[in-house]
Write a structure and sequence with these properties.
224 residues; mainly alpha; Cytochrome p450; two-stranded antiparallel sheet; two-stranded antiparallel ribbon; 6% strand; iron
Length: 224
């Protein structure tokens, strides 16, 4: 893990050097222009931001789509309903975001004042790592929180964060998931697991929430 992270940091360091020497019409070049004009990001912060954009913009969306397909494969009636009426898929995506958040935790927060949770008081100035999987299943906020309800209409999940910390890529992630599920179910409406459910393994770690792999059996649908 540490070796892979070090390799990514080195890769982005080299990439940013090349972008600085030969800017293009892309996000990293735009961030470099801000840094070179003396704005807020240092060189280390810029490298960290590039790394965050890679992980947050790819792995989380892959987990979202994988988690959605996994849930549909275990619920044939729901899968068939979504295949028959793609207009229902946006609501399904929101429920998957709530029930099986692709990111297990938020980025670190720092308490600005003492906070009491239950019988524990967190002093001001402490780092806090929030479990999105827990808050999105809060029974005080979501009735029957452990149940997948594709018709749930109360919204309010925190899979993308909140306020000034709301995920910049949320609209893109939602769009990618909607398109992927719509096209997948149109081409393979009877998609199902190719292995017993108990053979599936979740990734371990504090950051991401997804499967190590998702073997599926594709069924032919109408030609598109």
């Amino acid at each position: 893990m540490i070796g892979a992270l070090s390799a990514l940091v080195a890769y982005f360091g080299d990439l940013l050097d090349r972008k600085r020497a030969d800017p293009a019409d892309d996000l990293l070049s735009a961030l470099l222009a801000v840094v070179d004009e003396g704005d807020r990001l240092s060189g280390d912060e810029l490298t960290g931001m590039a790394l965050l954009l890679l992980v947050a913009g790819h792995e989380t969306t892959a987990n979202l789509i994988g988690n959605a397909v996994h849930l549909l494969c275990g619920r044939p009636e729901l899968r068939d309903r979504m295949a028959g009426d793609p207009a229902l898929i946006p609501a399904l995506v929101e429920e998957v975001l709530r029930l099986e958040s692709p990111a297990a935790t938020s980025t670190y927060r720092v308490t600005t004042r003492p906070i009491t949770l239950g019988d524990t008081t967190i002093p001001a100035g402490e780092q806090v790592l929030v479990s999105l999987l827990a808050v999105n299943r809060d029974p005080a906020r979501f009735p029957d929180p452990d149940t997948l309800d594709a018709a749930r209409d109360d919204g309010g999940h925190l899979a993308f964060g909140h306020g000034i910390h709301f995920c910049l890529g949320a609209p893109l992630a939602r769009l990618e998931a909607r398109i992927a599920l719509t096209r997948l179910l149109a081409r393979h409406p009877g998609i199902d697991l190719a292995v017993p459910p108990e053979n599936l393994r979740r990734r371990t770690g504090l950051l991401m929430h997804g499967l190590e792999s998702l073997p599926v059996r594709l069924s032919p649908g109408p030609a598109l």
